Amino acid sequence: MPGFRGTLLLVPLLLIPALAAATEPLWFSDLPPTAEWAEKTRRAHGGLVERGRGGVTAKRLWLRAGDDPAHAAYVPVPAGEVVAEGPARDPVPPKSFSTEAGGGIRFEIPEEGFYNAYLLSREVRDGILETRVVKAEVLMHSCANGHDRRFTESRMPPRTTAGVPFELIRERKPDEDFHSRAVSGEAIAFRALHQGEPVAGAEVRLISNTGWGKSVITGPDGRAEFRMVRDYFTDWPEFDKRRRQDYLVLAEYRQPLSGEFDGRAYTQVHYSASLAGTYYPAEREYQSYLYGLGVMLFAASLSVGGVYHYRLRQRRPERREAFDEKA
Amino acid sequence: MKRLRAFVNGADIQRFRTWFQLFAFVLLVYGGYLYIDLGNSLPVFACGFNDAGRGGVCYLLPLQHQTHIPWESLFSWRALGLVFGFLTFFAWLLVLNKAWCGYVCPLGTIQDWMTALRRRLRLRYSVYSLESFTRLKKVKYILLVLLILIPFAIGNPVEGLPHVPEDMATPFCTICPARMVIPAFTGDFSQWTLDFSTRTALVMTSLGMAILGIFFVGAFVNKRFFCFFCPMSALQALFSNIALLKLRKDGGKCTRCGDCYRVCDMQIKAIADDVERKTLIEDDCMMCLKCVAACPEEGCLKATFMGIPVYEATEEGFFRRLQRRGGE
Amino acid sequence: MSAAPQGGRRAAVLAQQIRESAQALATLEREFPDNPAAMDYFYKLFHRVYCEGGRAQPEGTLVGTTCVQVPDEIVRAAGGIPVRLCSGSHAFDQAGADFMPAKSCSLVKATLGLLQDERPAWLDTLDRVVNLTTCDQKKKAGQMMEELGCQVHHLEFPPSKESEHARAFWRASVRDFVRAAERMTGGRVTRASLRESILAVSRAQAAYRRLQRLRAESPALLLGKDAFLVTNAYFFDDLERWTAAVDALVAELEARREAGISAALRRAPRILFTGSPPVFPNLKIPVLVEQAGGVIVADETCSANRMLNDAVSVDEWNLYDMVDAVADRYLKPCTCPIFTSNGDRLRRLLDLARTHAVDGVVYQAFAGCQVYEMEHHSVSRALAEAGLPCLYVETDYSPDDVGQLSTRVEAFIESLRSRRRRRQ
To answer: Are residues B286 and B177 in the same domain?
Structure first.
């Protein structure tokens, strides 16, 4: 087999779910499937994390199948290679797990910065080499570690991993730091990379939490830019400004190439990659500058009026008390 | 040495202070652009919401975060964060005492600029009457207690009592005018909003914007208006008698002329009337040393660092400053 | 009042006043050896003004004041020339006896005597007076001054200075006084004029403080009789000229110090003089003290230290602050005995005693001055606790008691000398 870099972990094939999973898009999510699993997690800047050995933070990524982020099924991990890399480009050994609720990978994230985790699989079907890359970009940040700007800037840029044939990276905004979040209404951009280089002609599709989707074909710079929709509408009393929503980005790229893999021949390579993330309601949806300014000016004018009135009263001489003799 | 002393004592400390404040302002509001980071325990309002340029963070923000823990955590390693944060704050405070307020605090500097504007416009300043002064003095202590207890109450809900909402996790920061004003100096006006997402958030941010409006007017007509209500000042006051920089008075030399009280931005009467105490740092004092500069009696008031006088009231210095400032 | 017989009587009074001034000056100038050359200016000034009828001030509206606590700066800012009317003349004292009871303050009697009919030469155009409502006798003299034909502004002084409303009351009083001063002089108090007068008075005060600091030296560089003359000159002399003359005196005394020339012997007992103010020509007690061999190195009286010591401190150089600054300076540090408590006076006395290495205190009270006589009780107790001997002298303007007083003063000085010897 042509080799992949990194730790090779073979997981026994589960035929039927694997076949079903073979055709549907697969992606990683940190959202637990049941309340029981949710209890083990706590909120952190990079999403939901768990407590690892000796107090170290750990990330549990569940594998999901389907292109509807809100309703995708939790599936066990199929055959493939699982790789992860830490912020300093150090290899991190993820462990696969399989439970009744679903399967996925888990690894420890002690360092600040972005971890990249991949599930790579290859299979020849109908003369096409299906190469699938399921990617997760995990942020680890704790405010207790401080906010050194230089450090943040050095750990911010998105990374590709050598040996991964096709993947997506999310472009950073200018002045983005570890506290930044994607919000509805804002632009979000991705790049499709083939063998580490931007590739033209890839179809990149962004799917929002409610299933809204948009496709873009990349140009020579490999970029696909979208504007995240606003699709969280609710009655105002129920509005939660911290409501987490998931988005899914799927990329596909076909390359005519002949070869042989695992004893079978192919004439085309079909790459598919996935990258999921979270987005939140934009501040604009619940914050008002106009009202803020209004309240401030109102308070200020009351104060000015108060001071002016007080000073005016000071100038006038004391008013004499008039006694009512009739009472 | 004597000539150096005479030069310092005769100097116009107000001019020095204006420049020093400008330097500290640039350092704390724009220092982040130069990767300067003085830590999270500063005893001044170097606002943490000023993401872009902050050169350090006001201690009250991490304090509110650190008290937002379940009480069991007070006995765990997490409490170390609280302890170390406090010890760093205490170390800063030990050196400059309340001169942080008078010489470094960016919000204080902004208020001094507004006072300078008012003076140029020849508008009279406002003062508190003695009764109002005595009553309002307590507000800063109430604010200090609340900003520690409210986050703690959020982390430790009591059975039967209504839960304190999460939106009050940093109660003081939400109402503090520095949160709106200081980021504005780096072009960030995102804090000038009302947050409608929850009722609590709406009430708190409305309160914050209203206080901002009052702040602008108050700081314009009253010298150092906000400092009278500042919980940081209350926190510092608890330790001001231990610190190394002190304000000392020799009561025997005092004629109770009240010149020091006249010029005091914080309307501290004790500096003029108290002739018994040796160290006179009231809880409102911001150690701007205007009183020392305004005292005509030789050696009556002095600022000492570890016992060594650094700025002393001298007869000659007083008259020289009077002639120079009046000539402006 | 009919002119002719009064006119003759008045002329006699004025002549008597000239005689006693000349006599006092002669004593001051000639009975003490080696006066500093800079003092000649002052001797000549008094001679010219008190004895020869010359004017000290340039042309302008003279505004008489009856207390050091009347804000001079405001009078100057309004374009007036403040002249202190408190008189030390026995001739005027006797003239003023027509108006006042037998047992009353000589100083107030003398002031009324001064204003009666024809003024003395250097006050010939004076008819505007600012009378401060301080002690009973001064306060009631205000109405009498009106009857004598003066335009009087009764400036209201609070009876206590501790409380906040006393301060507010005095500030309001001074603010009204600004308008009254403008009406008196026909001028206007502007920001520039008030600033100028504050700075000019402050320069005079700085000069006085330099002089006072030299007086703390040992052996003494200047005799008290000269110091009192210098400060008495401030009552009526031109401000800038007076400041320059004091600066010249300070320079000369510094030179004398370098050369080792002193005004008194090193072992001469150093005296702190306090109480009713010695006003020229009534420098009776200070002269007696120094003739007996003592030297007055400091004083706590309103014809000297109290008049010039406390300084105005302005925070913002705009009228709203300058006027209040002037008001505060004239109330808060005031150690006049008319107030409800005298803690400040006691501390001032002890501080002066300490900084000037004083051996004893001479407390002068004019006969009939209720407040000074009453304060003697607490002052003597405080001085006793501090281990300072105190000589209490009750006197008035008449020269009859000089003999008896000189005996007492000499005894006091002698006891101070032996005390010093015993300590060494």
So the answer is: no
Check whether residue B181 and residue B300 sit in a common domain: no
Nearest CA in chain C to B290: C315
The domain total for chain B is 2
Question: Are the beta carbons of C209 and B315 separated by less than 8 Å?
Answer: yes
**Angle at the Cα of A207 (from A201 to A210), degrees rounded to 5?**
165
| Co-location of B68 and B87 in the same domain | yes
| Domain-located, residue B7 | no
B146 and B214 inside one domain: yes
- Model ipTM over 0.90: no
Which residue, B236, B255, B280, sits at the end of a domain? B236
**B31 contact A CB<8A:** no
Q: What is the pLDDT of residues A287-321, one digit of tens each?
A: 999 999 999 999 999 999 999 999 888 777 665 55
| Domain presence at residue B147 | yes
Question: From the CB of residue C304, how many other CB atoms can be counted at a distance below 10 Å?
Answer: 25
Q: What is the pLDDT of residues B291-314, one digit of tens each?
A: 999 999 999 999 999 989 999 999
- DSSP string for B18-32: HHHHHHHHHHHHHGG
Across the interface, do C324 and B263 touch by the CB < 8 Å criterion? no
User: Is there a contact between C376 and C361 (Cβ–Cβ < 8 Å)?
Assistant: no
Whether B75 maps to a domain, the answer reads: yes
Taking the C-alpha atoms of residue C345 and residue C390, their distance in angstroms, rounded to an integer, is 15
Low-confidence ranges of chain C (pLDDT < 70): 1-6, 424
Note whether B125 and B68 are same-domain residues: yes
Range of the domain at B276: 244-326
Global pTM? Answer: 0.88
Q: Where are the domains of chain C?
A: 7-423
pLDDT tens-digit series, residues A127-178 = 999 999 999 999 999 887 888 888 999 999 999 998 899 999 999 999 898 9
CB contact under 8 A, B210 and A293: no
Contact criterion met (CB < 8 Å) for A295 and B213: yes
Residues B17 and B131 in one domain: yes
**What pairing do the DSSP bridges indicate for beta strands A81-85 and A113-125?**
antiparallel
**Interchain CB distance below 8 Å, B255 and C311:** no
Measured between beta carbons, the chain A residues lying within 8 angstroms of B81 are: 144
The reply to whether B229 and B262 lie within a common domain is: no
Q: Which residue of B has its CA nearest to C198?
A: B326
pLDDT for the residue numbered A317: 64
Domain at B321, CATH number: 3.30.70
Angle at A304 between CA A302 and CA A309, to 5 degrees: 95
- CA–CA separation, B305 vs B99, rounded Å? 12
Task: Show residues of chain A in contact with B213, CB under 8 Å.
Answer: 295-303
